[in-house]
């Protein structure tokens, strides 16, 4: 499994740093965001370290990532939710391990800032 020494999410996935886990399986991990922007704010990520969407060549992994996001949204009883994938610093990406934000539980404005 690809790992990056200085990656917070790799450390969380390896249980070297604490986090609130929602679910995990062989290749995906879902945690609660430490600084939630909505009543439900989850982060869905692959166990394997990939910097971001722009550097991901694995279509199967991307499919499973989005399937996992949809499944946890359903499990959390979110009838409406937003998925966000920030790619690059200007987009707001601050942790460079691919992840999908799943936000729900309140009305969300459009467009985002
Ligand atoms: P990005 O800005 O890269 O799209 O999203 C990174 C997200 O990770 C942010 O929403 C931030 O609050 C969250 N985050 C940063 N550090 C930690 C951490 O140590 N634990 C958890 N659970 N979330 C974190
Ligand atoms: Zn990582």
Written account of the structure:
- This protein is α+β, with helices and mostly antiparallel strands.
- The chain has a single domain (8-104), classed as HIT-like (HIT family, subunit A, 2-Layer Sandwich), CATH 3.30.428.
- Helix content is 20%, strand content 22%.
- The chain has two helices and five strands, in the order αβββαββ.
- It has a five-stranded antiparallel sheet, with helices on one face.
- β2 and β3 form a beta hairpin.
- The chain is globular and about 35 Å long.
Q: Topology, please?
A:
Blueprint: H1 8-13, E1 21-24, E2 28-32, E3 40-46, H2 59-75, E4 81-84, E5 100-104
Antiparallel strand pairs: 1-2, 2-3, 3-5, 4-5
Bound molecules: guanosine-5'-monophosphate and zinc ion.
Zinc ion (ZN) binds near residues 4, 7, 9 and 97.
Q: Please give the number of β-strands.
A: 5
Main structural class: alpha+beta
Unreliable parts:
none
Our count of domains comes out at 1
Mean pLDDT across the residues is: 97
Could you tell me the CATH topology label: HIT family, subunit A
Rounded radius of gyration (Å): 13 Å
CATH class: Alpha Beta
Q: What fraction of the residues are assigned to beta strands by DSSP?
A: 15-25%
Short description:
The chain has 113 residues and is α+β, with helices and mostly antiparallel strands.
